Amino acid sequence: MANNQKTKKPRRPTPGVPSKQQILDFIEQSDDAVGKREIAKHFRLKGQDKIALKAVLKDMADEGLIDHSPGRAFHKMGGVPRVTVLRVVSTEDGEVWAEPEQWQGEGAKPRLRVIERGRRSALGVNDRLLARTEERGKGHVAHVMKKLARSAEMLMGVVRKEGSRFFLAPIDKKQRTVFGLTDLGEAEVGDLVLAEPVRSGRKMPTARVDAVLGDPFAPKSFSMIAIHKYGIRNRFPDEVVAEAEKVAKWDLGEREDLTHLPIVAIDPEDARDHDDAIWAEADDAKDNPGGYKAVVAIADVSFYVRPGSDLDREALKRGNSVYFPDRVVPMLPEELSAGICSLKEGVDRAAMVAHIRVDSGGNIKDFRFSRAKVRIAANIAYENAQAAIDGEKDRVDPDIVKCALEPLWQCWKVLLQAREAREPLDLDLPERRVQLDEKGRIMSVAPRERLDAHRLVEDYMILANVAAAKALEKKKRPVMYRIHETPGREKLVTLKDYLATFDLPFALGQVVLPKTFNAILEKIGPDHDNRIEITEQILRSQMQARYGPEPLGHFGLALGSYAHFTSPIRRYADLLVHRTLTAAYDLGPGGISLKEAEDFARVGEVISSLERRAMEAERETVDRYVAAYLSDQVGQLVEARITGVQPFGFFATVTDLGGDGLVLAKTLGREYFRYDEKRQALIGEKSQDEYRSGMRLKLKLVEADPVSGALRFELPEGSYGGDRNDGPRRRRDGKGKSGGKNRQKGRKRG
Predict the structure, then answer these.
(1) What does the alpha-carbon distance between residue 654 and residue 643 come to, in Å, rounded to a whole number?
(2) Disulfide-capable partner of 271 in 183, 267, 488, 508 (CB 3.0 to 4.6 Å)?
(3) With helix as H, strand as E and coil as C, how does 276-322 read?
């Protein structure tokens, strides 16, 4: 049968850079995952042709012809990767159906029919598998390559009861499947549990309780939900802890002695670790008039965590520390992260130090790196440092203010000149801060204040990160760069269409720089009604930052050479930069070999993925805290802002608080509402009332679920849109009804 015949591999072509169509044909016809290496090998590319291929692939991605799948293999844009991880979602009538576990394509996740080898019905709902996919007709099928570990298959949810039956209510607000519980174990109604899916012939998927995690509403439970959901490693193996205890007792060894410098660490008031400290003074050298000398001292983690050690292997599995409102899941055991590697006031610590001279314009004049012994003069909270500079004399020791803080601020003035000259992307979006009391109960949720002290420390860290990258480039050593590429054309087209709804022009043919986006925000001014929404849309148009050995620059910071050097306690990428500097400058043990550095591409993909996981877990946990904070306001009106519009309704967030909720389209009124994709709006066919992204309005909070973090809103009672001053807006173009194709995008109301 034709469907069972193996696809023939394309004939090997003659050497030369292939056309875009040839590349697409090869990706489509290949049975295996296709990355840049496979394309180069197939088309027999060498030398300059490989470099040219990289440019062609970037153009194809910008044009929307291809996209990346996990492992940086390519596939057709919006298509299913050749090799990917799937999760089984249905086993109806003897057929197994699965969806990609991760999906960056347009629209809903595609469903793939799974072809099982050997014994049929060996797969059940929620099983995870590595599969090779192929296109069949208008759909796809998946051939099982490997069933993945059971530990990742566990379900998390809350036990609920309806009548005499027990259910598992999911903790993920995007999860719609409800599992019946066949075995409660020791769980009771309301408990947060882990459950194992059970294969059965029933229509409703079922599961049995495997472990009781406790009360989901108890203080500090919200972060545990994220830890279990994302499989974050929150316990260190005994051998890792033992090794940490052993290395923490090591002597600091021969080091440059910087204990005489009044180096200070400026951190959040609730900081759990202190891995960076700074010092500066005016440079008296004749060749640097108006310049400064700066020291950025970073905890010397590479001295304690050696390549190939148990500590190193565990750190790579974690990739980074994960920060929740109530706890931190550290990359390194506390013996290091909160102990010997934390730069605490008044004790000698091992540090990797960047010695940097900057000229009067804030540009790097020269630099060197050393391993040093430091003794921190003071650990200062951002708020206290700012208050001391602003003249509040009782917040910080006056001697520290004079010998440490004032010179730091003076040097920062010239660093600020350099920053303003290069015009990095300036998106000042508020960050939510959850404040808890001693028992872990929520005191407040509010935007985090942004002070000059924050900007000062940020600019010193950027200075050191640039120096680290340039130092390794100068030594011709591999670099684990922090990469932020120029936005792709597809995202810029979307941004152009969005800005056009505000009569803001955006030319696609221009050379796009960070200041291009800054100019848009400057044009609309700080008081524009939709400034936050436009800023968020600009942020969505940016590429996602990642780690890798390619010198592609950092678009957002407007820097050509940039690496992460300043946080090796909490980021594995920084640890690798420290190791490479150690080897490049011959600074002693803990360096990395050139052979080990050859693996930077793979490691960069791993730690980039782990970073994204941490960000999602942190964001979801804050959403749960926000929902818990709002749970006693159910039934009340809240000030909100529409953040997204879809044919089925719109999403809104509570002003100055955060937390996204849904307003279903069926609750908007009795008339027909049409979805205008370009305007990002729902528009009433008769009234022309408009609900569009960025609108501010009052909404009734009808549900706040702390377990999932979900909110649900409705319009105020007795009103379709509330007060006309706050509610839906009339279309500015004054047009009447629309029919045809657009009409199909709407939904009948009432």
Answers:
(1) 10
(2) 267
(3) EEEEEEECCCCCCCCCEEEEEEEECHHHHCCCCCHHHHHHHHHCECE
